[in-house]
């Protein structure tokens, strides 16, 4: 089949790879001049999510204080945003959290397998590093993480619970003082460079053939007609005006346009209740080599990740919750400063002396979060339309499994995921 993928982020590139592997001809349409320029560019490094990473559950936004929960609520967010927070809060209840994580888990494992398969075939190097150490500040927060620790035991996820002294002994850059509650070490989980991986996959596909990348092209609309799906392309800036709209036709269409997916889908009548969340990164040079961590450090409650990539530290988090209508407007200096301060403070608290924050490069991007914490992957609205978006904090790790699922569905192959997971990912679950 001929398949159009809208979006050249990690979701679109991984989907294109899996479609090509399944024998389809693929065209990726991306509005930027190259791939991996959206949320993918700002990733925090963590590859696959554990129950401590997902953006739902007892610890997520458990406190109303920005400085404590790591999420800044911008004043004036509207009724829809409040409703979104309310829905997500329902998953703080341990049983609801366990049920939802149980639905996500098969996709995590499928993604692990799909990524391993790509690595085995092409031997790609994308700054993979093993080891993630999650740190928890207070006894109260440690109690709140118990539901996640129960899930680690239930699913036999390899991990070690460490006292503060053991954390410091394992990772020399972490100090046992001032006192904190403890840590969870995942020595087999990994961090890696997501945009680099996306670019390497593009290069591989360029060499193999069968996937065309239309870069610098923006899709202005989707058309769904009979057995065909098409996209209309916006005129390129500076191009001579023409009355004719550029249209490309295909047998199937995958919307993997990150935050841009919402507007495209809404115009064909599919309104997804996903909420855009702005996130920040600081990329800081290592200040003192002897203070720099050799595993990634994650502030488990504030969801701030600090991963080392060569001679720099990538610090990601500082989410800002605001009304969806405000997302295209500048955030405002005060809120940006507050978000970046959260990142700087977490780095100083956990690994003092490791990063030169004053020389760090800031970045901000938007990721889509769903009110039930799970992405939207599957067929939607029309037999030829497929969606792959809303991966929230886990788009890097889930990309290969999500792409495989979309490729299986388009190819008419039964996906290797349980029915309740497939139902929990589908767009029509919100109806
Ligand atoms: C700061 C930060 C830290 C993160 N940390 C992690 C992490 O540690 N681990 C993890 O797994 N995930 C992490 N994530 C989430 C992860 O980065 C995202 O889930 C993932 O990158 C989403 O990929 P995507 O391809 O769906 O979206 P994007 O990367 O945003 O790609 C969408 C693409 O579609 C294009 N597009 C949009 N509309 C159109 C249109 N109309 N026409 C043509 N092209 C269009 C855009 O230009 C863009 O390139 C983080 C995200 C952020 C922002």
TrEMBL record:
Family membership noted in the UniProt record: Belongs to the DadA oxidoreductase family.
PANTHER family cross-referenced by the UniProt entry: D-AMINO ACID DEHYDROGENASE, SARCOSINE DEHYDROGENASE-RELATED
Keyword DNA repair: no
Name the record gives this protein: D-amino-acid dehydrogenase
Keyword entries, A-Z: Oxidoreductase
Gene Ontology molecular function: any one: D-amino-acid dehydrogenase activity
Domain named FAD dependent oxidoreductase: residues: 2-409
InterPro entries: FAD-dep_OxRdtase, FAD/NAD-bd_sf
EC number: 1.4.99.6
Pfam families named among the record's database cross-references: DAO
Keyword Oxidoreductase (UniProt): yes
Major enzyme class: oxidoreductase
Biological processes annotated in GO: D-alanine catabolic process
Superkingdom of this protein's organism: Bacteria
A GO CC term attached to the entry: plasma membrane
């Amino acid at each position: 089949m001929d398949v159009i993928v809208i979006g050249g982020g990690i979701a679109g590139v991984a989907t294109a790879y899996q479609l090509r592997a399944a024998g389809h001809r693929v065209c990726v349409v991306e509005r930027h001049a190259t791939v991996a320029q959206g949320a993918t560019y700002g990733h925090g490094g963590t590859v696959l999510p554990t129950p401590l990473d997902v953006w739902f559950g007892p610890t997520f936004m458990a406190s109303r204080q920005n400085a404590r929960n790591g999420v800044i609520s911008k004043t004036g967010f509207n009724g829809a945003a409040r409703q979104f927070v309310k829905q997500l809060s329902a998953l703080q209840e341990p049983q609801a959290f366990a049920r939802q994580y149980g639905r996500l888990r098969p996709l995590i494992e499928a993604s692990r397998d799909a990524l391993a398969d790509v690595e085995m075939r092409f031997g790609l190097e994308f700054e993979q590093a093993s080891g993630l150490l999650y740190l928890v500040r207070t006894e109260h927060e440690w109690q709140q993480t118990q539901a996640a620790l129960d899930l680690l035991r239930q699913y036999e996820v390899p991990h070690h619970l460490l006292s503060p002294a053991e954390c410091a002994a394992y990772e020399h850059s972490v100090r046992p003082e001032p006192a904190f509650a403890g840590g969870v070490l995942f020595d087999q989980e990994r961090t890696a460079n997501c945009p680099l991986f996306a670019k390497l996959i593009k290069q591989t596909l360029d060499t193999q053939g069968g996937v065309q990348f239309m870069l610098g092209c923006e899709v202005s609309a989707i058309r769904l007609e009979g057995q065909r799906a098409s996209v209309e392309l916006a005129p390129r800036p500076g191009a001579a005006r023409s009355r004719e709209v550029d249209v490309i036709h295909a047998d199937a269409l995958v919307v993997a346009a990150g935050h841009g997916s919402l507007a495209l889908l809404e115009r064909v009548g599919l309104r997804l209740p996903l909420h855009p969340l702005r996130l920040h990164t600081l990329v800081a040079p290592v200040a003192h080599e002897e203070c720099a961590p050799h595993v990634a450090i994650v502030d488990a409650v504030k969801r701030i990740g600090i991963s080392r990539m060569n001679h720099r530290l990538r610090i990601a988090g500082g989410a800002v919750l605001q009304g969806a209508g405000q997302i295209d407007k500048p955030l405002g200096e005060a809120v940006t400063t507050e978000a970046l301060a959260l990142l700087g403070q977490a780095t100083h608290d956990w690994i003092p002396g490791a990063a030169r924050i004053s020389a760090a490069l800031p970045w901000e991007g938007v990721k889509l979060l769903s009110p039930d914490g799970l992405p939207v992957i599957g067929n939607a609205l029309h037999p030829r339309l497929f969606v792959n978006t809303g991966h929230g904090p886990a788009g890097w790790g889930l990309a290969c499994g999500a792409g495989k699922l979309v490729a299986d569905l388009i190819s008419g192959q039964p996906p290797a995921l349980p029915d309740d997971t497939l139902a929990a990912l589908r767009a029509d679950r919100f109806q």
